[in-house]
Each structure stands twice: as structure tokens, then as C-alpha cells.
Amino acid sequence: MQSYKMFIGGEWVEAVGGERFESLNPFTGKAWATIPRGKPADVDRAVAAAKAGFRTGPWPKLTATERGHLLRRLGDLIAEHAEQLARTEVTDNGKLINEMAFQLKYIPQWYYYFGGLADKVQGAVIPIDKPQTFNFTRQEALGVCVGITAWNSPLLLLAYKLAPALAAGNTFVAKPSEFTSASTLEFAKLVDKAGFPPGVFNVVTGFGGEIGDALISHADVAKVAFTGSEATGRRIGELAARSFKKVTLELGGKSPHIVFDDAEIDNAVKGVISGIFAATGQTCIAGSRLLVHRSIHDQFVERVVAFAGRAKKGDPLLASTQVGPVTTPPQYRKILDYIDVAKGEGATCVLGGGPAAGPDVGEGGYFVEPTIFTGVHNRMRIAQEEVFGPVLACIPFEDDEEAIAIANDTTFGLAAGFWTQDIRRILRVSERLQAGTVWVNTYRVISYLSPLGGYKHSGIGRENGLDSIQNYLQTKSIMIGTAEDVVDPFVMR
Question: Is 284 a catalytic residue?
Fold first, then answer.
């Protein structure tokens, strides 16, 4: 049984109240670690440490180039410890070792990229229309930034937030999900080893309902970045607005995955499988609505069913496993409830439709069979609400116009994908889809270089890419008068 502490002000500390909670292994259903159960007093400690780190000590005295060196050093340390961090995440969230090992080997790129960007942040000299006035701008850090991450990819989602925040010169308080706190605490060891000054990076752990409001509402917090559900994002937005905090919200999705009748079928089948059954469907960008041209619908769905039906379920730490467990007990129950809802609405279950059983999935794991529904129309709850699990809703369409209309007929707009060989269709459809990311003849591709974020209820702002660092900066305009005499003090110049 692992026993972790919080990381605050460069020190490893217990919660003020001394309480702890257990973290469960989704494959076994058993506790494997204990985590400090923070309360508002712990939030105060963490924010105070971050505030002190921002205003005093070594951090504000570093040049942007020196901050970049620290970020690149952190990237090197992540690369060195990628295997250990990946195994920690698999043990904590049940995702496949193949996927998490790839993620952890890729995550250093965020710290290399933003480490290189740190000393490229520049102001401007403005040729202002006022005579005898010199005007220039500065890009300055916000102060204390908070990052609240979801349980599906804790360290990747943290990188989206932490790397640009530190590159911009801010300090940071991380609040990982109570279901998957261990990897963030392991990561904090590397931040410490990299040589970041005390208070620059802090981790407070606990339940959102107990510390979330205190963290978001804290007077000394300037910015909140969150990845998670629409409902929680709305709550964060409301609380942050009361004190005019900046927010970045990457929320849910009900992403359409469209297959046109000229698609390369073998690749499209693999793309659809990747979009919904990789990561056990526990990803905001999951292609959970499959839209197929009616002329190929039955044939295509049959091939998807056959492919998904062969997927190997089991221990996520084994390289041969293709479908792992659901991460949390509440999510496991939610997915099964949605399967029952779909059946009650009249959808036809052609694969799965319940808990998985057998020797490979063990006795205590939270396994759901890869599930596919046909006979779905877009007004069904299974087509409108985010399930966040291995459940695919199949909908036929007649032509491009209907496909676009169905795809956009949702409150979400995080991602979309489609398969076609027609370049004119590629340009036309990609322009009209209401989604922050559109994949064509591929799916589920993420890069530190490319912005990620949503339309509509899928969030506010963008993470990754060149523009994302602007979310952690504010612009100051400085005007210097060069006139020897002030003409009229009662008239605005």
C-alpha cells in the first residue's frame, strides 16, 4: 500500500486535519494507495505558498531563458521516468499500458516546446497617434494559476496547463481528481528534482466537493484551467466569474464520426474503433456517434461489430490487452445506466450491452463490454448525452447535408471526424462542422503544437499550440510622455 503526501511550498505535508482516503485499482477493485484528504485550510496553504513563490524568492528573479531551462530539465526527467509514471497511471486509472507509455514518452514535448517559448514572449512598440508620447506593451504573468485535471489522463492534461503557465512566469496549484491523484504526486517529485523554487508548483489533493469551491473562489487565485464534465465546468465558470478570474474550460463532447460512401473502408473501421473503444471510451473526444451513409450502413456496422467483438479485455498492465476497465465505480454504474436507457428508448444492441465477465477481467474490476447500438436517431439520449464509456450509437444518413445537420445537432462541439476520398467534400464539410478539432481520414490525433478546445458547451479557450500561452498572460500598455511642457491639465490628451 503506497502512502502519499501533498506537495506544498516545496515540502511534503499531510493534510491539516490528518485525514486520508483510499485510491482504488480499477482492474482489481482494491485499494492500492492512500492520499491526503485536503480541506479549505490546505487550499489556503497551497495558494499562500504559490503567492509567495510568485512575489518573492528566486522565481520572479529568473530570466525567461532560465525558466525555459528549468522546463526543459523537467521534460528530461519525465522522459527518464516515463515507464514508472505510466505504470502508476495504469494502476490508478486502468487505462492500457500501451497508451499510457506512449503518452508519458510524448509528454516531455510540452515542456520542451513551452520551455523554448518562454523567452519568445514579447511586447510591442505601438506607433501611437499622440504626439510626444512613446507607447509600448509588456506581456506579464497573471500570478497564481490553478489546474484541475480529470481522471482519464492526469499528467497529459496537467501538461496542457502547467507548461504554458510556468513558461509565462506564473506559479501553480494542481488539484488532481480524487480518483487518480497518485501520478501527479509522483510527478511533483520530478518538479522538485528539476530545481524549481519552493511554491512554484504545489499539489493539493482531496474531494472536489470539499475543496473545489475554496480553490476556485480564493482571492489570490488569478486563473483556473479545468478539464472535465460540462456540469462541473459550468460551476467553475460561475464561481470564477464572481471575482473576474480568467478561465480555460475543456469540457465534454458527443463527437460525430462520419463515414461517407467513398471512404476507404478498412481504415475507416479502424478509425471508428480507435475513436470509441480505445481508452475504453473514457475520453472527451470520443467519437461516440457513428454516422454512416445509408448505402453502406449495414455492411460497415457489421465490420465494426466484428472488429470490436474480437478486442481482448483484461489486465491493463499487459501489452496484449486492448480494452481495460472503467476507471471509477460511479462511472461504471453511469455507463450501465446509459445502456439501459438506450434499450428503453428502442435502440437495438448489436454488441455487448452489459458488464464484462470471464477469467481475463478478474472478479473485482469495473469492466463493461464494448457496446454498439443501431436503430438510433439523434434525439435519443444515447445520441445527445455524454456517456464517457465504450458505447457507440450508429445513425444512418442520406447525403452530405443530412450528415452535417445531424453532426451539428448537439449542444457539444469538441471534436468531429469524417472519412472520404473527395477533396471538395473534405474542404466543404470540415468548414461547416461545428467543432474545435476536425479529423479527416484519421482520428484521435493530439499534438502540443495544435490548439485543442471546443465550440458551444464543450468549453472556453484553447490549450496547446502557440496561442495557448496567451491564456496565462496579461497585456500592460505603457505610455511615456516626452513633451517638455504639459499644455492643459483639464483636457484629455
Answer: yes
